Amino acid sequence: xxxxxxxxxxxxxxxxxxxxxxxxxxxxxxxxxxxxxxxxxxxxxxxxxxxxxxxxxxxxxxxxxxxxxxxxxxxxxxxxxxxxxxxxxxxxxxxxxxxxxxxxxxxxxxxxxxxxxxxxxxxxxxxxxxxxxxxxxxxxxxxxxxxxxxxxxxxxxxxxxxxxxxxxxxxxxxxxxxxxxxxxxxxxx
Length: 189
Ligand code: GLN
Fold this sequence. Notes:
Elements: E1 2-7, H1 13-26, E2 31-36, H2 39-44, E3 49-52, H3 57-65, H4 71-81, E4 87-90, H5 92-98, E5 110-113, E6 124-127, E7 133-136, E8 141-145, E9 148-153, E10 156-162, E11 165-168, H6 179-186
The protein binds glutamine (GLN).
């Protein structure tokens, strides 16, 4: 049984839960999904992988650093304790990895600029260079990237990988293709 933790701080959480369940079904894998809201949720049960959804990184920072939660620093420690732990971070989640703002090392090596395609009205859908449906919502944009390139849109980096840690600027949970959620589960094997 593989245990997937999902940060429930804010944002696109339920679509990710469905996408993870779909991916598990496709892989015939038995999984359990743990909803993480506070540091205690992470301490009570060992997780094998972490899903960091999109949303608003400012709200996630406020909620996740608040005394009543303290989840965010706990998640950063969990990732730093073992570099190979599988993580899938999308959009705002990618912003948190690239720019944790906790005085520690970034979790992926990439510059990231928030809302760099514009606001909500400039959200767009476009197939990535690999054909994957890219859904970009108030998306950030990677600048210089030091880690491995995971995927591109017209040559521009939209996904970065460091081992089992993947950061995407789009929303894979909103399309039909569960490739990235499958990668998260497969990395647990
Ligand atoms: N604009 C958001 C931010 O800056 C990210 C958008 C998203 O996650 N869809 O945090």
